[in-house]
Design a protein that fits this description.
This protein has 297 residues and is of the alpha/beta class. The chain folds into 2 domains: 222 residues, Metallo-beta-lactamase, Chain A (4-Layer Sandwich), CATH 3.60.15.10; 57 residues, no CATH class. It is 39% helix and 20% strand. The strands form 3 sheets. The protein has a 7-stranded mixed sheet with strand order 1-2-3-4-5-6-7. Helix 5 packs antiparallel against helix 6, helix 6 packs antiparallel against helix 7 and helix 6 crosses helix 8. The longest helix has 29 residues.
């Protein structure tokens, strides 16, 4: 994993925290996502050093690299899609989040790796699609954007027109030459969410990894390219699945060579493969098992 330095940049009253490895967003005293456990420690330290208070944490979805930092910010009320709380309450999910965060912390030589514990938030408020939350600089609109997960939510921060999307808009590689689609629960939902995001006037697209997109035209271009990349990626996975006869070891070898290495992806291999398994299940379910579905129906 490449080196990185934790930084802070302001866009109006919105503060962008992190580095290309992971970004979180602070609107006034409302924090969106916490990153991993490794990252959460740095966020907590930054808040303390700058005398900043967080009154609520809004989660974009329930994955380990978005909720894993919560134990270091514990006790703060949260808001999220209603499904997130049921998902995190499952013992199997909590232990997986723990395992993935420990693995990353150990990779980064964090001395707390084996002591990391994930405890789901107890004070959680289910958010409704279209709900508007007040913050001291304006409003935050809650937008359901499923497809990456069932509980994926984007947050539209006004008046700055910053859209925090979790992984609903894919993740670019380091030089921006490839956008890795992030559908894990549903291809159709993911595409529909991308199309919904394209209907908003966005000045800053708050991605969670690699880069933040500034400027209305660049955001529009990115979202258009992300949709096109998704359609191509689905066709690639369908081709690999068919040629491998659905056999996982063959699929893994093909995808690692044709996609992961070819496009120089920085996501840790173990995390990429965990996501790939979910994507292959989505491809299998939506294209190879009856009833047969087509993207353009």
């Amino acid at each position: 994993m490449r080196p990185f330095e934790f930084g802070s940049e302001d866009y109006g009253n919105v503060r962008i925290l992190g580095a290309p490895y992971s970004y979180v967003y602070l609107a006034g005293d409302i924090l969106m996502d916490t990153g991993t456990g490794f990252w959460g420690k740095r966020i907590a330290r930054f808040l303390e050093e700058n005398s900043l208070k967080v009154s609520r944490i809004l989660f974009t979805h329930s994955h380990y690299d978005h909720v894993g930092g919560y134990p270091y910010l514990g006790g703060i009320p949260t808001g999220a899609h209603p499904h997130l709380y049921g998902t995190l309450a499952k013992e199997k999910v909590a232990r997986f989040i723990e395992e993935m965060n420990r693995r990353e912390m150990a990779m980064l030589n964090d001395p707390d790796a084996q002591n990391y514990r994930f405890t789901p938030p107890e004070d959680g408020r289910p958010l409704e699609d279209g709900e508007r939350l007040e913050w001291r600089g304006g409003e935050i609109e809650v937008i359901y954007t499923p497809g990456h997960t069932r509980d994926s939510v984007s947050y539209y921060i006004l008046p700055e027109k910053v859209m925090v999307v979790g992984e609903a808009a894919g993740v670019p590689n380091r030089d921006g030459s490839f956008i890795l689609p992030q559908f894990l629960s549903s291809i159709m939902d993911y595409l529909n969410s991308l199309r919904r995001l394209r209907g908003y006037e966005i000045e800053v697209l708050g991605l969670p990894h690699e880069m933040v997109i500034y400027g209305r035209r660049k955001v529009k271009d990115y979202l258009r390219l992300s949709e096109a990349a998704t359609l191509r990626y689905v066709e690639d996975l369908k081709d690999i699945y068919a040629r491998c006869g659905g056999e996982w070891d063959c699929i893994e070898r093909e995808v690692m060579e044709r996609i992961y290495r070819r496009h120089a992806l920085d996501q840790p291999e173990y995390a990429f493969l965990a996501n790939l398994k979910a994507q292959i299940r989505a491809v299998e379910r939506e294209f190879f098992l009856p009833p047969y579905n087509r993207l353009h129906d």
